[in-house]
Amino acid sequence: MKKVPGSVKLLEEVFPTKQIVATLGLMAVAMAAAEHYHAAPEYEHQAPAKHIPIVHSESYSHHDGSYKFAYESANGIVAQEEGFVKNAGQKDHEVQVAHGSFSYTDPHGHPVSVSYVADENGFQAKGEHLPTPPPVPQELIDAYAKAASQPQYHDEPEHVQPSAPHGYSQY
């Protein structure tokens, strides 16, 4: 039997060999995985963004909460918006309303235009490029109209006169 110095024995008691081997194995796997992982995709060199000047800009705001702004950039982006406070002075009923539009040319050279309204009903945008739901079939419209014209059924319990216990008069 080989004699082992006391310091090595103490080290083996604190860090058992199996635990050291397992830890080193996990570290090797983690390092190998890290070599194949890229935190961000690698892109080809892109030219720095060029400065696009604003060729027109106007902005107005008033103490009553109404405002208006518009701008146009040299690359053809155009935007405008107007807003006001609906139900001004009526606490719990005031609503900021905005309506406007913007347009630009997409990367494929197609013009894109959007008009919108934002109010108590949310943000509603309209544009030729935006998806819209399919039209409601005429059969469904007719069925809804017919159902609406039918008498309504109300599930109400019958009124039952309570009875007096046996041997007692009800009144």
TrEMBL record:
Family matches, as PROSITE patterns: CHIT_BIND_RR_2
Molecular functions (GO terms): structural constituent of chitin-based larval cuticle
Name of a matching Pfam family: Chitin_bind_4
Example of a GO cellular component annotation carried by this entry: chitin-based extracellular matrix
InterPro entries from the UniProt entry: Cuticle_Struct_Prot, Insect_cuticle
Protein name as catalogued: AGAP006012-PA-like protein
Record's keyword terms, sorted: Cuticle
Stretches the record annotates as Disordered: 146-171
Domain of life according to the entry: Eukaryota
